[in-house]
Every structure is written in C-alpha cells, then in structure tokens.
Amino acid sequence: MATILLLMHRFDEASQLQGEVLRSVRHFALLSNRPEATTRILVIVTAGDLMANTPVDFLLDDPIFRVEYLFVLPGEAVPHPLPAHDVCIVAVAYATANEPALEALASAARLWDRPVINQPRNVLKTSRHGVSDALRGANGVVIPPIARLTKSDLIAGGYGLPEGLNHPVLIRPIDTHAGNALQKVDRLEDLRDYCTGTDAAAFYVTQFCDYSGADGLFRKLRIVLVDGAPYLCHLALRDHWMIHYLNAGMADDPAKRNAEAAAMAAFDDDFVPRHREAFAEIHRRMGLDYLILDCAEDRDGRLLIFEADTGMIIHDMDPVDLFPYKQPQMRRIFAAFHRAVITRAKQEAQDENGPGG
Fold it and tell me: At 50, phi and psi to the nearest 5?
C-alpha cells in the first residue's frame, strides 16, 4: 500500500504507512514465491521513496527465484546472521540519507559468507561526485567537472564559479533526479537568480557539455552493465539538452522509435566495439556487478557520462504495439541478470560441496 501511495505521489501518507509497518516487521517474503523455486535471493533494501532502492521487481520476475526482502534502516545495526539465502543483492541505492545504512552494510559485509551482488562499499561510489572522482581520466570516458556547493558558498563567492568550471554550467539541488530543479545557467546573473528562487541549501554545479548531433538532436542512452557487459535499455531523442524518456515524445514520433529500434539492433556490433575500453574501465573502477549509466556520445565520439548508479529503473511495460522491439531487448537484460544470480548460486553450492560434491 505504501508503494501504491508513492506511485500516486502521496508521499507523506506513504512514508507514514511504511514507517508504521517497519516498526514491527523488517523481513518479508513475496506471496508470489513458488514452491518449485530453486534459488533463494535476499534483497537488502531501506526505507524511502521509489528511488531509495534498486527496483529489482522486473529483474527477478522468474519462478526459479524465491525472493525475500530485508529492510535495514539508518542508525540501526545490520542483523547477523542474515536470513538464509543463496545470493544477496544489496539494493540500497546511493543518496545522502542512505549513506549511514550503506556504511553499516559495508562493515557488516565483511562477515557475510554468501555471494553478494553489488558490494555496499562500491555502491557508496555512485554519488554524482563519487562517480566523477572514480571515472576521472578513464580512457574513452568524458566525465564533466562537478562541484558540491552550498548556497552560502555561492553567496560568499559573489556567485562566481570555482576553478575548473566555466559558463554554461548545470545546477541542481543535491539528491535530486529526473531533471527536478535542474537548470542550465549561462551567466553569473542566472546563477544568482536561481539561488534566490530556491529553498535548497546545497547544490551540484556541473560543467555543461553540448552533446547535440549534426541534426541538432540530443541523444541520451540508458545502458545497464551486468558483470561489465553492456546492454541498451533505451535511447531518447529530443531537440533540447534536458532529455528524459518521458519528455522526449518517443510514443508520439515514429521516426524517434525507428531510431531507437535501429540503435538496439546495431548496439552489439556498432556501439559496444566503439566504447569497449570505456565500458571495461567503468566496470573496473566502479566495481559493481549491476550498474546503470545515463550517457551519450560527445562530439568527439567519446562516452559522456551523466549519471551512474544502481537505482534507475529498467522495465518492460512499454506498449508492445508502439515499441515491439523493446520487450525482446529487455528480456535479454533480465536473462543476463538471471545468469549473474544463478552463476553465483551454483558457484557457492560447488564451493560448499567440494570437488567431490
């Protein structure tokens, strides 16, 4: 019910109901779990909105999995031992509010004896500044310079930009997503006006990179890395730099859908070879088994990273009549994740049984 309320944007009611439940129960099993399930998966999550955790519902929608959720709350100890499982997925996504839970999980993980997908110490790298630090200088990767600034910092500096940043820049309150309160500022005066008109106290200020193509369109890709292997989730096209799949008008424009379908068909043979080294470096530096990139190609053909985290949603809910190419592609991604889980569970079983098991 709390999730339904979140989907209805009734956030206060959802938070209150979620809190009431979690005061007495922290461990849940899905009613959809089937008796024939062969792999037990423990998903560790935390309280919060729909961005607080990796949305694994689509990834684990298979009768071979028995899925259970364990809620870990900031400021509280992580249970030891964990409930019985074959594979653990740390689904707590990065946010400032989730840092204490992730830090506690990182300490507790030293004692875990089962395979873990997404070690919590590496999830902590997926803040916007953490991604920038981790990927700076990676071959084939463009990661725009970024600064964390408070409103007091900006006022004290006369709204000038810190070293390494030049207009135009993008500014957004920390811990916001999906373009909420995001603005491109071209002049000192614009930055002052932005700060004057917001109640936010702290911001990310990022160098703006013009990634428009020769046709004037901007193209943003959502790519998931499963054990380092890249898969295209979607391609959005728009004539404006602030682009998300929902504001790109994909459902209204057959030409855009044709471009997305073509990109998916050619992804393995065209896009991946061009950026193979970049993907390998991202996987090595971030150290995450499951990671989602929002990215583009810059005008020099390099991989331009906007965001990299574990909380972005991938799904197969698009209407099949409009997007017939999407479901086969999403099934490939879900199958890759299934393989990652099953491989770890089988390896754990072999280790327990020994060479003669």
Answer: -70, -10
Structure tokens at 156: 């004290």
Q: How far apart are CA 144 and CA 206, in angstroms?
A: 6
Q: Phi/psi at 327 (nearest 5 deg)?
A: -60, -45
**Residue 5, C-beta contacts closer than 8 angstroms, at least 6 positions apart:** 11, 13, 14, 17
How far apart are the C-alpha atoms of 314 and 333, rounded to whole Å? Answer: 9
Q: By the 8 A CB rule, do 125 and 97 touch?
A: no
Q: Is 258 exposed, middle or buried (0-12, 13-18, 19+ CB in 10 A)?
A: exposed
The DSSP annotation for 57-69 comes to: TTTT-STTEEEEE
Is beta strand 87-90 parallel, antiparallel or unpaired with respect to 116-117?
Answer: parallel
Q: What is the dihedral of CA 155, 157, 158, 161, to 10 degrees?
A: -110
Across the 357 residues of the chain, what is the mean pLDDT of every consecutive 10-residue run? 92 95 94 94 95 92 96 93 97 95 97 97 95 94 93 89 91 79 90 88 92 94 98 96 91 96 97 97 98 96 95 92 96 97 86 60
Q: Is 310 exposed, middle or buried (0-12, 13-18, 19+ CB in 10 A)?
A: buried
Q: What is the pTM assigned to this prediction?
A: 0.93
d(CA 278, CA 11): 38
pLDDT (tens digit per residue) in 1-43 = 998 999 999 999 999 999 999 999 999 999 999 999 999 999 9
In 3D, which of 136, 146, 153 has the Cα closest to residue 171?
146
Helix, strand, or coil (residue 177): coil
Q: E strands within 253-302?
A: 290-297
CA distance 123 to 287: 9
Edge-to-edge order in the sheet of strand 146-150: 146-150, 202-207, 169-173, 183-185
- Residue recorded with tokens 């799949």: 245
Give the rounded distance of the alpha carbon of 198 from its chain centre.
Answer: 26
Where is 209: in which H helix or E strand? none
Question: Is residue 6 within 8 Å of residue 48, measured between CB atoms?
Answer: no
